[in-house]
Write a structure and sequence with these properties.
about 90 residues, Ubiquitin-like (UB roll), five-stranded mixed sheet, 5 strands
Length: about 90
């Protein structure tokens, strides 16, 4: 099982600060996002487009690094990796 940390409005959507989803070492972010969407459909709707791509409304971080700067949805996840979901932020 993998513990997914949620922040800001994502906690409100999920009703918790942490989701627990099935995990197999070596699985990809794509597989993990599908498991997250199955565990919390409302969060899945924010996180993924209808064709299963990242929507940009939720940033997925693997061990503190945004998957956009890694291998995207094909980023492999290790047992020790911490997974965090955060909404985009803006400021000035």
């Amino acid at each position: 099982m993998k513990h997914i940390k949620l922040f800001a409005m994502l906690r409100d959507i999920a009703g918790t600060k942490e989701l627990i989803v099935p995990f197999t070492p070596g699985q990809t972010v794509r597989q993990l996002t599908q498991d997250i969407a199955a565990a919390c459909p409302a969060l899945g709707e924010k996180m993924l487009t209808p064709d299963g791509e990242l929507s940009g409304l939720v940033h997925v971080l693997v061990h503190g690094r945004n998957v956009q700067w890694l291998q995207g949805l094909e980023t492999p996840i290790r047992e020790e990796d911490q997974i965090t979901l955060i909404p985009p932020s803006a400021g000035g």
